[in-house]
Amino acid sequence: MVNRRTVTIRDVAERAGVATSTVSRALSRPGRVSESTRELVERVAAELDYRPSVHASALGSRRTGAIALVVADIANGYYVDVIRGTQLELGAAGYRLFLVDTEESADAERAAIAALRGATDGIVIAASRLRDAELRSTAALHPLVTINRSAEGVATVVVDTAAAAVRALEHVASLGHRRVAFVGGPAESWSGARRRHTTLEAGRRLGVDIVDVGHFTPTRASGVAAADAVLLTGATACLAYNDAIAIGMLGRLHERGVAVPGDLSVVGCDDVFGADFCSPPLTTIRVPGERAGRAAAATMLAQLRDPDAEAGAPRVLSAELVVRRSTGSVAEAARTA
């Protein structure tokens, strides 16, 4: 009788009178053994209180017990929550997490994927900068889940910031703003492109002139140039690609003596830590990063359990507008200009 030590797969095999490889198949891929063998192995495993580890399963299935999370910029506060959610979900299932930062580079992302295919059981990519065809080919070779980057045939979790951007525009329109600047992020950003599209459509519906001031690196440093660009447009409000740009804009606007929200209302996106500590506190779109990470990890685990399952429709999470003091009514001077 097995006692006072960790029960191993060999113990189960000896008690059941089968090979260790048979135990592994019965517990990890029951369709590859007969029904009677599966029932026997499961009964013996239960009697011995055998709990297979991810690493033990890897021996029979060639799995590594590791999942990679590839993010576009680890310095971006939004990804902190994504990383936390992914790690918590995978950790509970016994997997290790490999974290890779591509620094907004599509080339670095390609290189990372090529290296990770043989070292991990699956890859989760947040805000991929790759083309649809590249993502599909990757998914055909290795388990893949994307966050905020939808491509046909690829399992995806999407946070609907596009709908929240419309609510942000409706918010500033209700405050009297009729000329609003759209401050874009990376040209390759799928979510950014969706927000630009829905904002332009909503602007036409609301009678608001949307001024596109171009693309900016999603960092606080880029907020300086973004603020200068917005001021040239005559807009009285702006929607920034993310909080990092918006917070950088607040600093630059203060330097130039532009009152926020008196002269210009500013809206960010993500609701990163510190967005409510700004001066003034930032109106922004709250993105559920931890939930997105958990959902992506759960999708990956389901894919590993059933590799032949189709990707299905994207899993969509909602985002909400959080109104703080960086948005306000149009100043009298702006109304009469």
UniProtKB/TrEMBL annotation:
Full protein name: DNA-binding LacI/PurR family transcriptional regulator
Pfam families registered for this protein in UniProt: LacI, Peripla_BP_3
Keyword DNA-binding among record annotations: yes
Keyword Iron applies: no
Annotated GO MF terms: DNA-binding transcription factor activity; transcription cis-regulatory region binding
The HTH lacI-type domain, residue ranges: 7-61
Organism name: Agromyces hippuratus
Biological classification of the source: Bacteria, Bacillati, Actinomycetota, Actinomycetes, Micrococcales
PROSITE patterns in UniProt: HTH_LACI_2
CDD domains hit by this protein: HTH_LacI, PBP1_LacI_sugar_binding-like
Highest taxon listed in the record's lineage: Bacteria
Alphabetical list of InterPro entries matching this protein: HTH_LacI, LacI/GalR-like_sensor, Lambda_DNA-bd_dom_sf, Peripla_BP_I
Keywords for the protein's UniProt record, in alphabetical order: DNA-binding, Transcription, Transcription regulation
